[in-house]
Amino acid sequence: MKARVRQKRGPMAELAHSYGFTAEEPGMSIPTIAEAASLIAAKQLSPVELTKACLARMHATEATLHAFVLPTEDRAMADAKAAEAAIMRDGPRGPLHGIPIGLKDIVDTAGIETTCGSKILVGQRAGEGCGVRREAGRGWHRADGQADDA
After folding, report:
1. CB burial readout 28-63, b (16+ within 10 A) else e
2. 40-51 pLDDT per residue, tens
């Protein structure tokens, strides 16, 4: 009788396993940011597919983690589609172009409700002078005008 050899799992597989998922389940095998950026730049990974995988993981783990106050899935997909079109046409503008992000609920973002975890701030939306804003054709930028390279 052969002994079963347990293969060592990487950190993502360990995380997935700890929540009862296998690495083969949709959205559970997501590359690191560096790997994803390299694959996107080489046009081997679509920002749309990466965003779908991240959203699938969010849905699969949110009931346990409670990590998101206000998921903006439609905006994430629209941004991914715009990034993909720009990358296919002109290549990536920077190392984070096409990488989906999540912002902590303490970062004012133009047009997005920011509550800082407080019921008192429910419904408060940041204006144009907020900490982070998105400009057509320029991507996400800090309010001080500095580009975030995404």
Report:
1. bbbeeeeebbeebeeeebbbbebbbbbbebbebbee
2. 999 999 999 999
Tokens at residue 34, please? 């560096």
One-letter amino acid of 9: R
Share of the chain above pLDDT 90, in %: 39
pTM for this model (two decimals): 0.69
- 46: its two tokens: 């679509």
Q: How far apart are CA 90 and CA 150, in angstroms?
A: 14
